[in-house]
Every structure is written in structure tokens, then in C-alpha cells.
Design goal:
The complex is a heterotrimer of chains A (367), B (246) and C (378).
Chain A lengths: L2 H8 L3 H8 L4 H27 L9 H5 L8 H12 L8 H18 L7 H18 L16 H26 L4 H16 L2 H15 L8 H27 L2 H9 L4 H31 L11 H10 L7 H30 L12
Chain B lengths: L5 E10 L2 E11 L4 E5 L6 H8 L7 E6 L2 E2 L4 H10 E4 L11 H11 L5 H14 L15 H13 L5 E5 L7 H16 L3 E5 L3 H7 L2 E6 L2 E6 L1 H6 L4 H11 L2
Parallel strand pairs in B: 3-8, 3-9, 6-7, 7-8
Antiparallel strand pairs in B: 1-2, 1-4, 4-5, 9-10
Helix pairs in contact in B: 3-4, 3-5, 4-5, 5-6
Chain C lengths: L1 H32 L30 H34 L4 H15 L3 H15 L14 E3 L2 E4 L1 E2 L3 H31 L6 H18 L6 E2 L2 E3 L2 E3 L2 E3 L1 H28 L2 H9 L4 H31 L3 H4 L4 H12 L2 H30 L7
Antiparallel strand pairs in C: 1-2, 2-7, 3-4, 5-6
Helix pairs in contact in C: 2-3, 2-7, 2-11, 3-7, 4-7, 5-6, 7-9, 8-9, 9-12, 11-12
The chains are: A mainly alpha (367), B alpha/beta (246), C mainly alpha (378).
């Protein structure tokens, strides 16, 4: 290429962009070269392994083992996908948890739209959860009864998260209000509860629920494992959500409380009609962020032996045919969680942007 | 005729494809007081921010006190030490007291010993009538007080030129006067000033020249009596009727 | 007023009833299971081995109490290292997101988005799978650097053999730190008196790192490496990071770094653009502007959420139980399974973590009070 031609291409639209964004100064140029070299070394081999040389379906693991080290074994997922989605739920009834998942997703979608932010939303949730209960348990309307020991997989993850949130949220509101109460006993309880739960790892709560709860109840009364885990998750979520709601309550201008008092509104009227609507509206982005963290935390139930998405993947690996494909398995798990969480995260950022002008969207999330 | 302290020659600036300044020619003599006015979007703030290189120009020449403004970092820093700026939103350093706000630059840029810097700072705070607030933090001061501290902070570097970018636009009405009074005193002491403002009373009292800008061009430049009594251009007439009407 | 007292009395009564209900049931159930109450079991012999320890030696003949001590030490080891790595990595990535280099900014943003949206436990399993399943056995271990061996039995590193000069070096390090502080004081006084700017940070670094280095060289540069060598089926000598520790540390550090990055980014962005402009207009060079104006303000915004993340990392280290690293929760779990003392075990776990949390909270409150920007007092 002649120098003149080179000089000309240098001023075409692409090159000025490259110049300004990647090579604007010596340190930048070095960084860019380094980054590009890193990408060059890692991206093509990964793409080869993950896509081009991968084994997508195989009735047994022979083909997969032959491709070990060169190609990913996605056949593992294909083989096990029903188990991963629905756990040990009876095969012919899989339409029921499938439908239940759709109902849950619909609940989320509806709650996400601002035009539905009215008290009636609570009714939709109650109806939705009841419908899910009917679908999952059965026993009525001619549906076969399926005991909850057989629920598992992605469906269980969503169930834990959804029911957890639904039950924890009212509790969180009560805790937040209680923490600001003038009555010392009430305030003491709420502060104590919140600080205790927030100060300990979720694992210890799961252990507590799974091991100690049976001891607390009279002999002969049993609480099944799922319920124990659900209770622990609810208690956990309530404490964190309570802090978010408290932040919302604190951010309401003092004048609002004063105006309501001046109008003669008693405590609960004032709270329900004036304070909470404003506090909750402001708290929604951080509430969504807390829910994202909570959704991720449902994965911990593997430790107490409950069959959620992560457990079912882990258990699938233990089958002799499929041991050793941990990397593929956990990459898949990562993908599923990532899909859910990043969707929610984008939603939360957009919401924050819409609701509070000039806010730094989503920057300070909890782990 | 002595060399002007600020000279803009054929200065143009674009934000992307939008041309915000079109072939600006302006000269400011030592000791001269210029008031720049015009409708919003006329480029007046951008123009004065070019003088201390908070914005960069793409065409033309800018010379400040004999130094031409280019990409040379040393020249830029030298220029900024001689040119003081007062911002619409004060921009005081919130983690420092008023006194510390004033001593920061003299100590770290001019290498003044701390005692000397503090003595000078107290003098300046007296000059803007706010010496008793020296140990307060900006959040503890009213808007008018903060802006006066900001003026003193700019003066602490003993600049040759003071630039004011709409200094009273963010203030409550009752505080505008205290800041304008300080600016009038400053003018009375012979400081070269370039002020972007809507306060026409100030322009009438203090300005040597009023520069009217619209759509990135200097439309008219004249002494205040001429400008206010008999504006030559239609646009200036329109602007004056809007701003003096209330 | 009476109504309030009535509410509170009612609440206390109800709580008391519930508590009595739980306690009496528990007592009865424990008796039926023939499990003793109380912490006496801590004095008994543990009867299990612990895979790795930190500074405290342990054998099966030691007590449960000692086992808990080892667990706690292990927790601290992984938490402190994790915090250091996460801070450094996170700050770099956070600054990378602010970079004007498009490629670096995008890659950093991608890192944050990916790591924040995948549960930590999944990431831990992933790292563990890579180390335990995908690294070769010790005989075919990978060796990216001389003396460093990566295998599915862990990462073997060479360590320097102990030498008396190292004690002197430590003393020299302390002396260097003291010297650096004294020099800084002197420089500040000098600036106040004559206006001369203090010497750069390089002097401090030179003092702190150079003095031990000088001692090292003066004693003849003694450096005898204890290298890991293949003996039979595994490596002997040197230091080994077990796969469990390596996976836990990697997972914790990379996960938390993503949150640290966002905190750093938010802190720097939160400083008003006008502050940069004011500093520029006064003629302050960029470096001084960062040091005197921008960073003090950014740090106020960064430290509180950062300490939150440190606490989260420490709590998250409890996931060690899922991949077999013997941290506090892991050992408590083993103990509970062996002795049936579930309540005491869980109580110990909760007490320890609660203490850590409350200490960090107290520190943060102290820091906030000390450093908070004085607000309007009018």
C-alpha cells in the first residue's frame, strides 16, 4: 500500500475512532495491545472448545470422553435437562411445573410494569401463588398429588425465590416500621432481629432451620425439609429487605409525616395511605437489587441437601457416566443464573434511571 | 497601545458537529472590565472557559498574558495560575474549611509558606467581608457566603485576570447583592475582569464594554451607555427588551 | 399511652410463651435423643483429622475446642488474603471501567457484569472443578514458572528456608515504617515554614522497602529455596496450596472484586465535575488535584460500602463447607454430626460471625463520625 493510500485510510471514519478510543496516548496504546493480545490468546481456543469442537448430543458419554480436553460436552446437559429443570417430578406431569414456572415469570413481568403498582398487585400475587400451589401439589381438580419431596431443579429455585420474596416482603415492611417505632420493646425486637440475621452467614440460618427446628417442635410434629429451608430463606430475606424499606422510610421528607398528623390520620391510616406508598416507590431499585442477591442465595440450599437447580446439576455429575464434566456443568449453571440476574439487573438500572434523575444506577449493590 | 492581556483571534469551537463558537475576535486590555451577555446557548460560558483552557478551541489563536494556549501542559498550568475563575456553582472544596480552601493553591502551586498563605487568606476573607467564617466548612455557609469565599479563593493566587461565569445565577435574590458588591469593589481596585452575567445593573455600573453574543458570534461590543441606550442590532434589541422587561 | 404499654407487655408475654414452648420441647427432645446440653463436649477428644491448618498444629487426639480454633484460624486466613486480593483487583478493575481506553473500559464492565450475576457458590464449584478435575496429576504437573507446580493436588510453591537474617529484615521493615512517618512529619513542617513541597511518595516506599533490602544484601543475600520436588505420588517441600483453599480464595477474591470495582467507580464518579474544574482553574497539577481534592472526597464515599464488602467476604467464606475447606463452619458441621450437639455448634458459629460483624460495624460508625463532612449547623 502506498503511503498516500495509507494516509487516506487513516482518516476514514474507522481509524479516527480507533485513534481516539484505543490509541490516544502511549499508555493507552500499550494497554490496548495487551488487551488485544490477551483476547487473541484466550478467545479462539475457548470458542473452539465451547462451540466448534463440542459434542452436542450423545446417548452415552463415550463420544464426550473421546472429545475430552478438546470439546465441551454439552450432551450432558441435553441428557439431563429434564432432571435439571424439574427434579424428580413425575415425567408425565412435567407440564405442571412448566406451567408453574410460566405463572411465576408472569408474576414478575406484571410486577415490573409500573402501571400495575397499586394495592391490587398484592391480589394478583396471592392468586398467582395459589395457582402455583394447586399446580405443584395437585390432589384437586383431578390432578394427581405430588409430594414436595419430588420437587426440584430450576423450578425449585424459582419457587424458593418467589415464595420467599412474597412472604418476606410484608414481614420486612413490619420490621422496618417496627424499627422506627417509639415503643422501646418493639424497636428492640426489630433491631435485634435485623442485626442478628444480617450479622451471620446464610449457611448458619439454613443449618439452624434444618437441624434446630425439629428440636423446637414437640415430638411427632415434623416439618418437611423444603418448608424448613423456605422458612430460613424468608427470615433471611426479611432482614435485608427491611433495611432497604427503612432507607426508603427515612428518605421521605419529614413534612409528609407532619402533614398526615395535622390531618388527624391515626398511625396505621397514615402509614398505609401516605408513608408506605412513597417509601416503597423510592425503595424499588434497591429492593430489586436485594432480590437479585436473594435469588443467587437460593443456590445455598445444596448444602442442606435440597434439590434446587445447582444441586440437580451437581447430582447429575455424580452419575458414573458423567463424572468429570464439572466445568461444562457449572458453566451451564452460570449461564442460567446469569440470564435471570442480568435481566433483573438491567431492569433495576433502567428503573433507577427513570425514577430518580441523576442517580448513579446500580452502583452500590450488596454481594 | 499596550499589548492586550487577553486576545482571541478567529477562534472557533465545535461540540461534535455543532459549531458553538464562530470566528470569535476579542481583545481585553489590562484593567478593562468586560461584561458578556446574551441568550442561553449563545456560547458565552464556553468562550470564557476557553481563556483558562477548561475548554479547548479547534481553530484560531488564544493568547493570555503573552502565552499562547496550546496543548503544552506547562503553559496551561502557568496560565491558570494567572487567571482566576469564579463558577456559577461555587465549587468550593467541601472537605476543607474556608481558610483551607484559600491556602490550598498558594501552598501547593506557588510554594508559599503556610503562615504567609494564611495571613494572605485572612486578608482576602476580610476584603470579602467574611473573615469570621474562616474556620467554617462550605456546607455551613449560605450561598452568598460560599460565593464570596470562592471569589477570595480565586484572588488568593494574585491573578492578573478574573473570570466570572454567571456568578450570581445560582443564588437566592437576597444574596445576589452581597456578591455583586464585592465584584464592584474588585473592579474599583483595577482588576481586569471578564464577567458573564444577566445582571444588567452591574454592567451599567462597572463595565467598560458590554459584549453581546448570540448563536456563537459576537454581535455587538460597545460601552454600556451606547449599548443600553441605542443597541445597533435587532437581536440585541430583542434581548434587551426581554431581559429588561421584568 | 396505656395502649402502648399494653401492646408492649402483650408482645413480651407472647415472646416469652413462644420461647418457653421452644425451650421445653427442645429439652424433651434432646433427652429422648440422649444428647447432653452445654458446652462440655468442647473438652472431649475430636477424633477427626483436619486437612489443613494455619499456624496451629492439630491431630485427632486434640480437643474439639482446639478444632474450632483451627477452623477460626483457617477462616481468617482465607478471609484476610481474599480481602487483600479483592481490594487490589477490584480497584484496578474499577479504575479500568473509568478509563478512556474503550477496550479496557468494556472488558472491565464485562467482568463486573458477569461476576456479579452468577452465585458465588456456582463460581466456587467451577473453580474447584477446574483445579480438581482439569489439572493433571502431580507427575504431569504444569509448571508455568520455575519451581511452581500446578496439579490436581494443589499448587506447590517454593518458599525461602528460614534464616536469622529474616528476623533482622523484619526489624528493618518496622524501622523503615517509623522512618517514613518521621520524614513525612518533617516534610510537612518544612512546607509550613518555607513552602517547599514534600518529596513524593517514592521516598516513603524507598524507606519502607529499601531498609530491609539493605539488611538482606548486607548479610550476604541468603536465599535458600525450599523447592517442592516430586517424591512418589506428590510433592514434598515448599508450600502447597490445597485445591480447596485455592478454589475458595480465587472464587471469593474474583467475586468480591467485582463489587469493589463498582464501589471505587461510584466513589470517583460521585465527586462533582466542578471540583475537577475548580482545582484546574487554580492551576493545580492533576496529581496534586487528585491527592488533595478528589481522593479525599472519593474515599469518604468508598470506605463505608467497602467495609460492607469485607464483611460479606468473611461471611461468604462460610461456603467453604461446600467444597471441603476446613473453615469454622466446616469444622462445626463435622463436630455437630459427630456429637449431635447441634444447638451449641450453631450457637458458636453465629456468635463468632456476629462478633466480627458488630466489630466491623462499630469501626465503620467511628470512621463515619470522624470523617463525615461537617453539615449545616444552622
Amino acid at each position: 500500500m502506498s503511503t498516500a493510500a495509507l494516509a487516506k485510510t487513516w482518516s476514514d471514519p474507522v481509524f479516527p475512532w480507533l485513534r481516539a478510543n484505543l490509541f490516544s496516548s502511549w499508555p493507552n496504546a500499550i494497554l490496548s495491545m495487551l488487551a488485544l493480545w490477551l483476547l487473541w490468546r484466550t478467545l479462539p481456543p475457548f470458542l473452539d472448545w465451547a462451540f466448534l469442537d463440542a459434542v452436542w448430543s450423545a446417548p452415552d458419554s463415550g463420544a464426550c470422553r473421546a472429545a475430552r480436553g478438546e470439546g465441551a460436552c454439552w450432551a450432558f446437559i441435553a441428557e439431563k435437562h429434564r432432571f435439571i429443570l424439574f427434579g424428580t417430578y413425575p415425567y408425565e406431569e412435567h407440564w405442571r411445573p412448566g406451567l408453574a414456572i410460566l405463572v411465576m415469570l408472569a408474576l414478575y413481568a406484571v410486577s415490573a410494569l409500573r402501571r400495575f403498582w397499586r394495592p391490587r398487585l398484592a391480589l394478583y400475587w396471592v392468586a398467582g401463588l395459589a395457582l402455583i400451589g394447586v399446580l405443584m401439589w395437585g390432589g384437586v381438580f383431578g390432578l394427581r398429588y405430588v409430594e414436595n419431596e419430588r420437587w426440584g431443579g430450576l423450578m425449585l429455585t424459582l419457587l424458593l425465590a418467589t415464595f420467599g420474596l412474597a412472604a418476606a416482603f410484608p414481614l420486612a415492611v413490619l420490621l422496618a416500621l417496627g424499627r422506627r417505632s417509639a415503643m422501646p420493646v418493639v424497636r428492640g425486637f426489630c433491631v435485634g432481629y435485623i442485626e442478628l440475621i444480617r450479622g451471620v452467614p446464610l449457611i448458619s440460618l439454613l443449618f439452624m432451620a434444618s437441624v434446630m427446628l425439629p428440636l423446637f417442635l414437640p415430638a411427632g410434629v415434623t416439618v418437611d425439609k423444603l418448608l424448613r429451608a423456605q422458612i430460613a430463606m424468608i427470615m433471611f430475606a426479611a432482614a435485608y429487605l427491611a433495611e432497604v424499606v427503612r432507607g426508603g422510610l427515612q428518605s421521605i421528607p419529614h413534612g409528609q409525616y407532619e402533614a398526615a398528623d395535622a390531618l388527624g390520620l391515626p398511625y396505621w391510616r397514615k402509614t398505609l395511605l401516605v408513608v408506605l406508598p412513597q417509601a416503597l416507590r423510592v425503595s424499588i431499585p434497591p429492593l430489586v437489587n436485594t432480590f437479585i442477591a436473594f435469588f443467587k442465595d437460593t443456590s445455598l440450599v445444596v448444602i442442606i441437601g435440597l434439590f434446587d437447580l445447582l444441586t440437580s446439576i451437581k447430582v447429575s455429575l455424580q452419575e458414573p457416566a458423567w463424572t468429570g464434566f464439572g466445568v461444562e456443568a457449572y458453566l451451564f449453571a452460570s449461564l442460567v443464573y446469569f440470564a435471570f440476574c442480568t435481566t433483573m439487573s438491567r431492569y433495576s438500572q433502567r428503573l433507577e434511571h427513570d425514577l430518580t434523575p441523576g442517580a448513579r444506577a446500580g452502583a452500590l449493590r450488596d454481594a | 497601545m499596550p499589548e492586550p492581556i487577553i486576545r482571541l483571534q478567529g477562534v472557533s469551537k465545535w461540540f461534535g458537529t455543532f459549531q458553538v463558537l464562530k470566528e470569535i475576535d476579542l481583545e481585553v486590555a489590562r484593567g478593562e472590565r468586560i461584561v458578556v451577555c446574551g441568550p442561553s446557548g449563545s456560547g458565552k460560558s464556553t468562550m470564557i472557559r476557553l481563556i483558562n483552557r477548561l475548554e479547548t478551541h479547534q481553530q484560531g489563536r488564544i493568547v493570555v498574558d503573552g502565552i499562547e494556549l496550546t496543548d503544552d501542559l506547562k503553559a496551561i498550568e502557568a496560565t491558570r495560575a494567572e487567571v482566576g475563575m469564579v463558577f456559577q456553582s461555587f465549587n468550593l472544596f467541601p472537605h476543607l474549611t474556608a481558610l483551607e480552601n484559600l491556602t490550598l493553591a498558594p501552598v501547593w502551586v506557588r510554594r508559599t509558606p503556610r503562615k504567609e498563605a494564611e495571613a494572605l487568606a485572612m486578608q482576602l476573607l476580610e476584603r470579602v467581608h467574611i473573615a469570621e467564617q474562616a474556620r467554617k466548612y462550605p456546607a455551613q455557609l449560605s450561598g452568598g457566603q460560599q460565593q464570596r469565599v470562592a471569589i477570595a479563593r480565586a484572588l488568593a493566587m494574585r491573578p492578573k485576570v478574573m473570570l466570572f461565569d454567571e456568578p450570581t445565577s445560582a443564588l437566592d435574590p437576597e444574596m445576589i447583592k452581597e456578591v455583586l458588591d464585592v465584584m464592584v469593589e474588585l473592579a474599583g481596585e483595577g482588576m481586569t475582569m471578564v464577567v458573564v452575567t444577566h445582571e444588567m445593573g452591574f454592567a451599567r455600573t462597572v463595565a467598560d464594554r458590554v459584549v453581546f453574543m448570540d448563536h456563537g458570534e459576537i454581535v455587538e461590543a460597545a460601552p454600556p451607555q451606547e449599548f443600553f441606550a441605542a443597541p445597533k442590532s435587532e437581536r440585541a434589541r430583542l434581548f434587551l427588551s426581554q431581559i429588561l422587561g421584568h | 399511652m396505656n395502649r402502648r404499654l399494653a401492646y408492649q407487655a402483650g408482645l413480651l408475654a407472647a415472646a416469652g410463651l413462644v420461647l418457653w414452648f421452644f425451650v421445653s420441647n427442645t429439652a424433651r427432645n434432646l433427652e429422648a435423643l440422649r444428647v447432653a446440653s452445654g458446652f462440655g463436649f468442647l473438652g472431649r477428644e475430636a477424633g477427626f483429622e483436619i486437612g489443613e491448618t494455619t499456624f496451629i498444629a492439630f491431630s485427632a487426639a486434640d480437643t474439639y475446642l482446639r478444632a474450632f480454633g483451627v477452623g477460626l484460624a483457617n477462616t481468617f486466613r482465607v478471609a484476610l488474603l481474599g480481602i487483600v486480593v479483592a481490594t487490589v483487583l477490584g480497584t484496578l478493575i474499577g479504575l479500568g471501567r473509568l478509563s478512556s481506553n474503550w477496550l479496557v473500559a468494556r472488558l472491565a464492565a464485562l467482568y463486573v457484569e458477569v461476576m456479579r450475576n452468577i452465585p458465588l457458590l456456582v463460581q466456587l464449584f467451577f473453580w474447584y472443578a477446574i483445579i480438581a478435575e482439569n489439572l493433571p496429576g502431580p507427575r504431569e504437573a504444569l509448571s508455568p514458572l520455575a519451581g511452581v507446580f500446578l496439579s490436581n493436588r494443589g499448587i506447590a510453591l517454593p518458599v525461602p528456608a528460614p534464616h536469622p537474617a529474616y528476623g533482622w529484615m523484619l526489624a528493618a521493615l518496622l524501622a523503615g515504617v517509623v522512618a517514613a512517618i518521621l520524614v513525612a512529619r518533617w516534610a510537612r513542617a518544612r512546607q509550613a515554614a518555607t513552602g517547599a513541597p514534600p518529596p513524593g511518595a517514592w521516598l516513603g516506599f524507598a524507606l519502607v522497602l529499601g531498609t530491609p533490602l539493605a539488611v538482606f544484601l548486607a548479610s550476604g543475600a541468603p536465599l535458600a529455596w525450599d523447592r517442592p520436588e516430586l517424591a512418589g505420588f506428590n510433592f514434598q517441600g515448599g508450600a502447597t496450596l490445597t485445591p480447596e483453599f485455592a478454589a475458595l480464595l480465587t472464587g471469593l477474591a474474583t467475586y468480591t472484586a467485582a463489587f469493589v470495582a463498582e464501589i471505587v467507580r461510584a466513589g470517583v464518579l460521585a465527586v462533582d465535575k466542578g471540583q475537577f474544574e475548580a482545582a484546574d482553574s487554580l492551576g493545580l497539577p492533576r496529581r496534586r488535584a487528585m491527592q488533595l481534592v478528589i481522593l479525599p472526597q472519593a474515599l469518604r464515599l468508598i470506605v463505608p460500602p467497602m467495609t460492607s464488602q469485607y464483611l460479606n467476604l468473611t461471611k461468604n467464606s462460610s461456603l467453604a463447607v461446600a467444597i471441603g475447606y476446613p473453615d469454622l463452619v466446616s469444622i462445626a458441621n463435622t463436630t455437630m454430626n459427630q456429637t449431635g450437639q447441634a444447638i451449641e455448634g450453631i450457637a458458636i458459629i453465629m456468635l463468632v460471625y456476629l462478633t466480627i460483624s458488630l466489630s466491623i460495624s462499630a469501626f465503620m460508625n467511628w470512621y463515619n463520625r470522624r470523617v463525615a463532612l461537617r453539615g449545616a449547623s444552622r
